[in-house]
């Protein structure tokens, strides 16, 4: 069977892999995306329990790639404030979009919808070939090229192999890139809940000793939840009847929206932290969860992945403009230097939050209440937090700039 030649081969057609494919195609690269799974399509009649809080920065990236209109045109839930409080009785802190002159802090969007919109966007680009669903049979990286053999016998040859294949990345393993990994000993329980009171477009997070509970507002008035709980507690919660779970949710949320009257689509995901020691190897780059997995408590995981993709597009396009090999090791290292520090900082911040909030130690309780109180009173601290939340930070790639 003839070998298909392309500039870049991306393994993994999830949210980050598709973003990278569209961005690279727009700067003139040819791209092959290999995705093992036929993704479940977005369902208008049913809100999925897997959602992401999309920052302004990510919205801009999706918009420039022609995917955002298809998202807001179908179902996106804007939120204008975030309220965080803990179980020790402190009123907590509220961040408003208006603190930074914005109408919204972000949008809650179903992952299936983001993926559908990106697949449509990729489908409009002649430079991208999507191989899906098909598994990879063999990978080979040489000095000047990489080759991929697919399970159906097709062969691809390109200048760069990108791992956008998630936390258990096959590409990362193939390249022999080690990871630092830590199991949080928690699971994230997701579900869609109905409450007595409307959420008022506010995202809420209550820090419980067992882990944070996030109530993410949906446009239909319900909330999507992520309840991070220690494994034993998560097992208990998973075993509850719907009625018992609603009662447990009402108590855990301090009935902030009144009683939880219904919950559907409960599921649990193990939570771990993972960081690749390098994002690149000769002819190989990692993006998204293949490079870093962070605690979902600040809803930043895929947002960091979108920035990885946009940064890789920038460094490769700039190298080619200067007549250099866009997949040369020096170019790839520029990408790694750009993104690894930023992601590590966010990951460490999440670990700090996790340490400070996920326990009932009285000293840490004092510390966090003091911190929340000071933050709530200090406008610069709030503005800084809002900047972080909406994604206005650091050195942004061109797809993400205002
Ligand atoms: C409970 C929970 C809540 C979260 N909430 C948020 C949030 O609010 N905001 C946020 O930003 N992030 C959130 N995240 C994190 C976010 O879901 C991930 O960061 C994001 O899905 C990573 O996207 P990705 O494309 O890098 O990887 P993935 O979504 O893992 O996609 C990888 C793709 O590669 C494919 N693949 C894997 N192996 C192969 C192979 N060998 N060959 C071909 N294809 C392959 C897979 O089928 C998949 O389609 C949350 C995570 C959890 C667990």
UniProtKB/TrEMBL annotation:
Cofactor(s) it depends on: FAD
GO molecular function: FAD binding; monooxygenase activity; oxidoreductase activity, acting on paired donors, with incorporation or reduction of molecular oxygen
One GO-annotated biological process of the protein: ubiquinone biosynthetic process
InterPro entries the UniProt entry points to: FAD-bd, FAD/NAD-bd_sf, Ubi_Hdrlase_CS, UbiH/COQ6, UbiH/COQ6_monooxygenase
Recorded metabolic or biological pathway in which this protein acts: Cofactor biosynthesis; ubiquinone biosynthesis
SUPFAM superfamilies (alphabetical): FAD/NAD(P)-binding domain
Gene Ontology cellular component list: ubiquinone biosynthesis complex
Residue stretches making up the FAD-binding domain: 5-320
Keywords, comma-separated and alphabetical: FAD, Flavoprotein, Monooxygenase, Oxidoreductase
Keyword check for Nucleotidyltransferase: no
Quaternary state and interactors: Component of the Ubi complex metabolon, which regroups five ubiquinone biosynthesis proteins (UbiE, UbiF, UbiG, UbiH and UbiI) and two accessory factors (UbiK and the lipid-binding protein UbiJ).
Protein family according to the UniProt entry: Belongs to the UbiH/COQ6 family.
This protein's name: 2-octaprenylphenol hydroxylase
Source species: Aquisalimonas asiatica
